[in-house]
């Protein structure tokens, strides 16, 4: 076989023209996607800019006296003519009434929580009125919505008199940097311009510390804490150190004569860190013993067939939603108390006491808690156990104390119903329909509907006996 002394440099290659044609074809194919993608991003940015303009216009609308007058509810229900209504809190002033009512209007239209909608309106007004350069750049597609969100985060609480200089200094950088990179640059620039020291701002920020529970999918949820940066970092570091000390490979393997523990399930660092966090919260104690003996409480509704292991129907965790049957059975097995919730007449739970009593009996209250699960306000998710029971048709207007006229509303949604021009009506199943000042209707179905038992069809009359051979034919 003949051999060759050719080196790679000597190897024949593609002609320059062929390589150029290949490069051009690749460039053309990629550009055919990237160029429309760039234009699409500009359209999306313009859409966000238009939404901000509309929300800012709604904010200005809520400052007009004629509009505010139209947002007020019935004088009796607002408490202006009825001292009893002050049980729902003192009447809101014009600003509070307009902000809450219009935020709920937006929440219903965009399927949001009213707090989220209210923040959107505030941020939109802030962008349009105080950062007009960023709003224009967004409308023109020169920056993205992510850049605007970073700018809003950076300028939260910043004095108005530094915003013009800050915007002029950082807007050109926003057009060149990623949102994350831009956020760091803007924060440094604001620090240079801010008239209040970082220490003073940190002291104020510490007053906003809080814990937030955010449900997720697949039976999971997020538990987030807003803390001072050093404390959050120290806490995370402690969890990491604990997680590193939890070596799953040390699980008993039977070498000491004991029965093997079975297959060792090796956890990732994230899983061990999460387990340490959970164990400290559920079983640990704070400094000085604070928290000793205190345990969290959850309310779970478990179908009886699931409890018996004969059904895979999920349980319902109050304030969250469906949970897997295994978890539901485990929680049920450790429950210190049970409430048997069926429907009348099986339980004897009174579904109505008519006009005999304003306050619902305990079993009726628990019945509606399990039915509603959460506040039935537009977009609201506060637990029913942390909410108030409202008569949909007010008691002072003849409304009965009955499950078909009772619904859970948190204090804010309860006050909104009584003090604004929103109106509600309720179906026999508990579904609550809100009608907004803008004429829109939004219906909240019960999270865990417990309907009345189906009516049984009347028993058919007994059939006449079949004729026998001994019976004469009916001539």
What does this structure look like?
With 475 residues, this protein is mainly alpha-helical. The chain has helices at residues 16-61, 65-71, 75-78, 94-110, 114-130, 132-139, 145-155, 163-174, 179-193, 198-206, 229-245, 269-283, 304-307, 325-333, 362-372, 411-419, and strands spanning 210-215, 221-226, 300-301, 315-317, 321-323, 388-391, 406-409, 423-426, 432-435, 441-444. The protein folds into four domains: 26-199, no CATH class; 209-247 and 269-283, no CATH class; 300-333, no CATH class; 362-444, no CATH class. Strands 3-4-5 form a three-stranded antiparallel beta sheet, with helices on one face. Strands 8-9-10 form a three-stranded antiparallel beta sheet, with no helix packed on it. The longest helix is centred in the N-terminal third of the chain and has 46 residues, at 16-61. GO terms for molecular function: endonuclease activity; nucleic acid binding; zinc ion binding. Belongs to the Rv1128c/1148c/1588c/1702c/1945/3466 family.
Tell me briefly what this model is.
The protein has helices spanning 16-61, 65-71, 75-78, 94-110, 114-130, 132-139, 145-155, 163-174, 179-193, 198-206, 229-245, 269-283, 304-307, 325-333, 362-372, 411-419, and strands at 210-215, 221-226, 300-301, 315-317, 321-323, 388-391, 406-409, 423-426, 432-435, 441-444. With 475 residues, it is mainly alpha-helical. It has a 3-stranded antiparallel β-sheet, covered by helices on one side. Strands 8-9-10 form a 3-stranded antiparallel β-sheet, with no helix packed on it. A two-stranded antiparallel ribbon has the order 1-2.
């Amino acid at each position: 076989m003949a051999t060759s002394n050719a080196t790679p440099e000597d190897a024949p290659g593609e002609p320059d023209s062929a390589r150029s044609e290949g490069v051009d074809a690749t460039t053309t194919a990629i550009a055919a996607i990237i160029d429309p993608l760039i234009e699409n991003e500009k359209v999306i940015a313009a859409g966000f800019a238009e939404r901000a303009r509309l929300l800012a216009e709604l904010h200005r609308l809520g400052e007009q006296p004629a509009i505010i007058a139209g947002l007020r509810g019935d004088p009796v229900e607002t408490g202006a003519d009825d001292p009893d209504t002050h049980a729902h809190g003192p009447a809101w002033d014009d600003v509070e009434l307009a902000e809450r009512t219009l935020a709920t209007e937006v929440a219903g239209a965009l399927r949001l929580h009213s707090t989220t909608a209210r923040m959107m309106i505030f941020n939109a007004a802030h962008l349009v009125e105080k950062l007009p350069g960023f709003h224009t750049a967004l409308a023109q597609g020169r920056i993205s919505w992510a850049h605007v969100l970073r700018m809003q985060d950076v300028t939260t609480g910043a004095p108005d008199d530094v915003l013009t200089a800050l915007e002029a200094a950082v807007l050109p950088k926003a057009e060149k940097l990623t949102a994350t990179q831009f956020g760091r640059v803007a924060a440094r620039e604001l620090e240079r311009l801010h008239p209040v020291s970082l220490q003073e701002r940190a002291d104020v920020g510490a007053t906003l510390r809080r814990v937030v529970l955010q449900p997720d999918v697949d039976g999971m949820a997020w538990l987030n804490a807003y803390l001072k940066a050093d404390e959050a970092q120290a806490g995370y570091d402690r969890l990491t150190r604990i997680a590193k000390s939890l070596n799953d490979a040390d699980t008993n393997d039977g070498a000491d004569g004991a029965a093997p523990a079975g297959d060792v399930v090796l956890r990732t660092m994230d899983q061990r860190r999460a387990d340490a966090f959970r164990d400290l919260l559920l079983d640990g104690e704070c400094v000085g013993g604070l928290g000793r003996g205190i345990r969290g409480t959850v309310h779970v509704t478990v179908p009886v067939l699931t409890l018996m292991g004969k059904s895979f129907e999920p349980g319902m965790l109050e304030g969250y939603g469906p949970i897997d049957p295994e978890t539901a059975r485990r929680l049920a097995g450790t429950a210190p108390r049970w409430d048997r919730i069926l429907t009348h007449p099986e339980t004897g739970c009174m579904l109505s006491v008519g006009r005999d009593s304003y306050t619902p009996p305990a079993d009726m209250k628990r019945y509606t808690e399990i039915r509603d699960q959460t506040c039935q306000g537009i977009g609201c998710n506060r637990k029913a156990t942390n909410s108030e029971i409202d008569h949909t048709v007010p008691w002072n207007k003849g409304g009965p104390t009955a499950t078909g006229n009772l619904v859970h509303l948190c204090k804010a949604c309860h006050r909104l119903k009584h003090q604004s021009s929103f109106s509600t009506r309720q179906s026999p199943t508990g579904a609550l329909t809100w009608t907004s000042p803008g004429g829109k209707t939004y219906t909240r179905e019960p999270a865990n509907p417990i309907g009345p038992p189906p009516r049984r069809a009347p028993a058919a009359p007994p059939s006449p006996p079949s004729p026998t051979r001994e019976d004469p034919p009916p001539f």
